[in-house]
Amino acid sequence: MVRLSIHALDAGGHGIARNPEGKVVFVEGALAGETVDAQILRSKPKFDTARSVAVLHESSGRRVPPCPYYEHCGGCAIQHADARTQVAAKQRWLEDCFERVGKVEPDCLLAPIYGAEWGYRRRARLSVRYVEKKGGALVGFRERRSTFVTDIQGCLVLPPQVSALLPGLRELVGKLSIRERLPQIEVAVGDEAVVLVFRNLLPPTGEDQALLRGFADAHAVQLWLQPRGPDSAAPFHPASAPDLFYALPEFGLRIAFRPTDFTQVNHAVNELLVSRAVRLLDPRPGERIGDLFCGIGNFSLPIASRGAQVIGIEGSRGLVERARQNALANGLTAQFEVGNLFEPNLAPYGAFDKLLIDPPREGAMELVKALPGGWPRRIVYVSCDAATLARDAGVLVNAKGFRLAAAGVVNMFPHTAHVESIALFER
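and the corresponding structure tokens:
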């Protein structure tokens, strides 16, 4: 046991302290400004990891975690901090990454984007495991620091109608003959439909199929089966059902998606994020705007609705096809092309006035390095990893002649350490 004074939070939501010998300690369950007694979990040459066992001086942002499973479940990391404390820590982490990784500083900080704390998670990957000793099937998130599945009966961050399915899913899985070959259930919630994608490593028997149909009918959900990779996912029951979609009311749009497509997990915050991105980009009629890593058109179509000429580029052929279908369904003109943006060649598309970049966690290093000196004049960069955003910002500012005009965080994932952010770059 060691007594520690916590001076900051890291990217994983752990308190950062130094032990009496000066070694860095990352403390689970501790907040900045607190004094805690901690149990060392693992010791490495340069740092230790620990767990807080007693808080001697509490942060003003500490609260009792509302979830009864929080102590064991790995789905959330910082429920013990209130919303303002969580977002402030994420903002500090973003600023630290800009300073330490990119050697840049934004001209101004944007107000954080908040959303509802609970019931927000409209996409989730639930682990499934059949454990005879625990009374049958477990369906939920992995335990912390473990591959075991947490024994839960509900989840506060899932939409209430999905949380209510968990006991029934446990019972259903326990009755299936393929229960030990069913590692996960993916959840996708649209504005008018709930889809559950069962990852089945064996085909279901006739009796299994009857049980699955009965569950879908009883709970008014759609069931899909996925025997191999994501592209193998296909509807199982019912044969005819409402499409998955989410609305962007400010732009009068409905964006359709498959349950295995990438979409933001928090649709309410995504509305606010898209609105801010479009305001920062300020698309005008006649401007040529590139949406790079465009996915199913989450940003492309709102930009096109403002009259700009939009070209969306994405590596996944399936997502490009969905983007084209969404443009057609919404009566918009936009061009979508398949392209490898990790080995970028934008020359065939001509010069762009502005760009929106929304890369995966790896960031867009090769892309920003490949930008020419003459265009674009403005970039809005949406990021799911503060460190790679900061790295790419360093290239844009120090090598490409941009200034980092503004940046801020988006609390897309409350109670987790995940940092979503948005930045504006101008020539």
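(Above: one complete record from the training split.) The radius of gyration is 23 Å.
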